[in-house]
């Protein structure tokens, strides 16, 4: 299993203001589902920040997203090692397969793969 990217998720009710603020640092909007918006650096597209009001299908908003090349393998490893699964493995309508897991510091991590 390989990590493709890691994205901090900032919970905010000020999406427009956040887009403008991070735009000052060179970030541009690359995705916007209404409840989550992702900003990326045009010169380094894997450098990203997501701003979200809440999560569309999960009970909590994650603190971070980790995209992996094999989300099913990541889910199996987490379960085998007794990690706390917050949101079960499932396919989402926006084209990702994902689950949420709690890390040792209490942070919620969205582990995903694109279909």
Automatic annotation (TrEMBL):
InterPro entries per UniProt: Glyas_Bleomycin-R_OHBP_Dase (IPR029068), Glyas_Fos-R_dOase_dom (IPR004360), VOC_core (IPR037523)
Location of the VOC domain: 2-114
Pfam families on file: Glyoxalase
Highest taxon in the source lineage: Bacteria
Name of this chain's protein: VOC family protein
Source organism of the structure: Streptomyces ehimensis
């Amino acid at each position: 299993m390989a990590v493709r990217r890691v994205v901090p998720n900032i919970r905010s009710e000020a999406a427009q203001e956040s887009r403008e603020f991070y735009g000052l640092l060179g970030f541009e909007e690359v995705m916007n589902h209404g409840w989550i918006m992702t900003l990326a650096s045009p010169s380094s597209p894997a450098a990203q920040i997501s701003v979200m009001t809440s999560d569309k299908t999960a009970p909590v908003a994650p603190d971070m997203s980790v995209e992996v090349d094999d989300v099913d393998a990541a889910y199996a490893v987490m379960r085998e090692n007794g990690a706390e699964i917050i949101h079960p493995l499932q396919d989402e309508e926006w084209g990702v397969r994902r689950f949420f897991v709690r890390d040792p510091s209490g942070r919620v991590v969205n582990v995903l793969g694109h279909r």
